[in-house]
Every structure is written in C-alpha cells, then in structure tokens.
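Q: I have two molecules that I believe assemble together. Could you output structure tokens for the complex as a whole instead of separate predictions?
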Amino acid sequence: MSLAITPEMVRAAAERIKPLARRTPVIAPDASAQNTGMRVFLKCENLQRGGAFKIRGASNLILSLPASDLERGVVAFSSGNHAQATAIAARYVGARATIVMPEDAPRSKMEPTRALGATIVTYDRLRDDREAIAARILGETGGTLVPPYDHPMIMAGQGTAALELLDEIPDLDALIVCIGGGGLISGCSVIAKSIRPGLRIFGVEPELANDTWQSFRKGERISIPPPETIADGLRSPSPGKLTFPVIRSFVEDVLLVTEEEIREAMRFLLTSAKLVVEPSGAVAFAAVLCGKLPPGVNRAGVLLSGGNVDLEFLRKL
Amino acid sequence: MSLAITPEMVRAAAERIKPLARRTPVIAPDASAQNTGMRVFLKCENLQRGGAFKIRGASNLILSLPASDLERGVVAFSSGNHAQATAIAARYVGARATIVMPEDAPRSKMEPTRALGATIVTYDRLRDDREAIAARILGETGGTLVPPYDHPMIMAGQGTAALELLDEIPDLDALIVCIGGGGLISGCSVIAKSIRPGLRIFGVEPELANDTWQSFRKGERISIPPPETIADGLRSPSPGKLTFPVIRSFVEDVLLVTEEEIREAMRFLLTSAKLVVEPSGAVAFAAVLCGKLPPGVNRAGVLLSGGNVDLEFLRKL
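A: Yes, here they are, computed for all two components at once.
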C-alpha cells in the first residue's frame, strides 16, 4: 500500500505555511550530555505560534482551501492545541472556525482559542462522540473539517518541523517524537527518512495511552478506552488510518514513559533548559532522559511538541 | 572623556567567544502586540550556556589571558550567574576558579557553579565586603580577577548579545536592557549605536535597586545600601566607573519597575512565551509589559538576561 504523503508534500507545505508558522529554534541544553550520555537537540515547538506544532498542519490544510470552501467556515475537534492552531489559521484567511472541544480541556488551551474568535462547542470526553458532533456541524454549515491528524495535508504540514530540524542539525542519528494520533511522527518520518535514510526514528507514548505501542506490536490498529494520562494532547484512543502505515514503515520502535517520567522531564526542561513544556510536549524527551532508547544513539533530535500548560499544573510539579 | 570600549572591541569579542557562548534565539511572542501595542523581540539569554548572558563577558576576558596568568587561576565575586560563567570559561581553558558568593545566593545559581569544579567562598551580603575578600584571595594566589561588569573585556563581551540581536532584527527602534552594574547595557549600547545611531536605548532597574536611576538623574555615580529586590542579579549598589559614562552617553532614560511588575512579567513570559526567566531577566520586559516606555516605540528589542531561578520561587509566583 502506498503511503498517504510524500517528501515533496512536506517540502510544499514548508513553503505554504511560511506566513503563519515560525521557524522554531533548536536548543542543545548544557546538561543534556552529562545526564543522558548523548547530545540532545531540542526542536522547540513550544515556542511555535499558538504554543505547539499544530499550526504547521492546520495552516497547510487551510491555506490550500479554495475561497468557496473558506466561505462556509472550518470545523475542528481537538483537546486544545489543534483547536488554537485552526483558529489562528482560520482568522488569517478570514474564515469562521467552529471548534469541538472536551469540556475539561485545560484553560490554557481553551481561552486563547476563544480569544481568537472561534466558536467553541464543548462535549463530555468520556460519553460523547466528538466526531459525530463535528459531523453534525459540518452537515449544517457545509464547512470543511480540519482533522487533528488523519489527513495528508495535516501530516505533511507537521513534517515541516523535522525538515527544519535536519536543515539545522544534519548529522542526527535518531529522531524522537511523541505519538497521539500520529500526525507529527508520520510527517516527520517521511521527510526525515528521505533526507537521511539511516536515521533511526522512535515514537514515544505515555504508558496510560499506549494505543500505538499495542498497535505497533500487533501489526494492526487497535483502540483503547479514553486514556487518562496527564499528557492531554496524546489521549487519542488509536493511531490514524493514514498515519499508522507510515509509522509501521519508518519507526524503529514505540517506547513508553510513565506519568512520573513525564513530570521529571518537565522539571528538567524547566530548570535546566529554561523551557516551559506541556506534559505531551515532554513525553519524547522523557524517553531520552529516562534511558528508554536502545544503545548506539549519540546525537538525538527531540521534538518538544508544545508548551500550553496551566500555571496551576506547573505549581503542582 | 573617552569611553572604555569601542564597537570594534565588541566585534572582536564576538569572534573570541564563539567556542563558549551560544548564539541565542530571538523570539517574538504571539501575544506581545496585542498587550503592549508594539512588536517585541526577546533576545533569549536565559537559553544561553550557563543560563545567562554572563558567559559572553567572562569568556571574552578569560580567553584573552596568557597561559602564565591562567596557571595562577581566576577569581570572581558574584551573586551567581557571573560565577557560573566564570567557572565554565575557567574549566574550558583548564584554569582554577575561586568564586566569592553571598551565602544566600539561590541554590539554582550556587550548585551548578560548584558542579563545574569551582571553589566557592561565601560571605554575608549585608556585612562583609566581597571585594576585600576577593582581593585577599588574589594576594595569596596571584590570580586574575574576573570582575562582574566594570572591565572593558567584560563590557565588550556582553555587547555581543546586542550585536546578534541587530544582526537578526535590524530594524528595531528601541533596545531595552536591565541594569545591575551596567556591563550588559554598556556593551550593548556601544555596538548598537554604532550599527544604528537612531536606535533608542532604555535601561531598566527595580525600584528597590535604583542606584543607576538616581545616578543618571544626578549626573554622577551614587551608592545605595545593599538592595533587597527579588532581582538578585541587579543588587549592585552603584553603577560602575567604566559603565556609567557609557550609560550617560547612549541611554535615553533609566526606567523603574516594581517587584510586582517583575513577577507579572515572569508570569507572562512563562505562560505566553513558554520561557523560564529569572527575576533579573524579566526586569527589562516588565518595563515594556507595564507601559513604562515613552510613546513612539513600535519595534522593541528586549534582553532577557537570564533564566536561573529556583523551582520554589516559580511555585510561589
């Protein structure tokens, strides 16, 4: 089966999203070498517009829509970062955005979305079907769905993060990326393997949200009940139809981290790297910090996927 | 009277410190425009090696010393960031470092300095004379003093931060820099005014440590009792002999911020910019955020001077 995206689609995305997405810095923290035995390069998507990598995919899709579609608005369902990204891109092109969001989404994610002029429709994460709610709105408005991960334009957009990272640090020997629905890792894998075929790619999930870890081992997509990890951006119950074949093709292994390891990574990033990273954003780095990688990795590129976390959460850390 | 440094000395420093100092990223936070009415560009010295701009000056001086001096070691007195910077640069050239440090310095500053192999001599900030202690050690060892600000090589090194900022964002109309002893703002002013003579330069101090504000208004250096501001990096009691004439020549005004405004700036940087900044590091941005700048500034470059802050302090924020 052919994969949903090509490296060329990621390169095209990099051009398309320039007006909206920032080229984020890559930071090699002082203490990384001594603590982990390897050089670590942090791709800081927490410093991205909207506080997460999500603007890359959302703007890639929305900027490619014809005016006739934009007139009918866009709809997204998201725990937060994708919502904010969709709202930013929609505002940029002058389209209405309706966001279907769990009612317990962190305030740090809900409030900026509302402030961007989006209409927010909330649902109960344990009871309601967010896709059904989005489908109803789409039926009423004739608008366009901006899915959180399982769409070629979204996947290609997210891959631009790895394109920038390898442009800046070409001689990485591994790339470490968190997995929710798999949009980020699939886009990053396709472009990274085309640039550097020997690069080793590792996905990381919270133990409490191990749907892709299970799927990867079983060789087919499985679903789990709504997971309760603190990494609220990685609570999707299964990998995507389009993202999973890419993960199977390019990812060497899926690694797991505990909730406490995620917190430890957040603390390290706060104190040693001076970076605010949300729980989901720290998951990939947690695998590095806690020694989950196999031997032989000396120069690791790590995607810090986002930084939208409530101050109250940081306080409890 | 001629000034202690020239733009050429800053350019020479930029070459000299390359092995030790990082080119730090410049970040334009999403929310800056809507909150302040201006575009703000944050020069992230909190992401610098050692967590502050201080490595620029310390490495510029230490890398210029002959081997015969390095053999006898280096000595610094510092509340923390300059200590860590001196220890990093000394270790790089294989010189012994002795640091004279207040006994109440934040752990986040003291521990990394010790871990770098420096010998730490503590003193009572309200009672002892740190310069006298350093002088005694220098008499015993014949070592070289690495002063925190009042030295041409230190001032020139610190100026490299502004050189990088203007290289990346050439069309700034103002530069906002915190003032402790004045090393950072004097180095930055000399290079910035040579590149862009029309640039407006503003210094910022905590109200509780207003020695340069008073000196600036009086036209001569005055001393204040040891200040108690949370901005522990800015507690010097007077501007330097060498830095003050530079400040008088190039700085349009010295602005003051309250302790609560410093905390507010730290919170904003944490939540909106995803950056951990120490109290001193947030002082310049506090002046921007709290409307202390005169009218007419549309594109402001702001030095975030450092990020070394205890987690306990962040928790109380």
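A: One point stands out. The mean pLDDT of chain B is 94.
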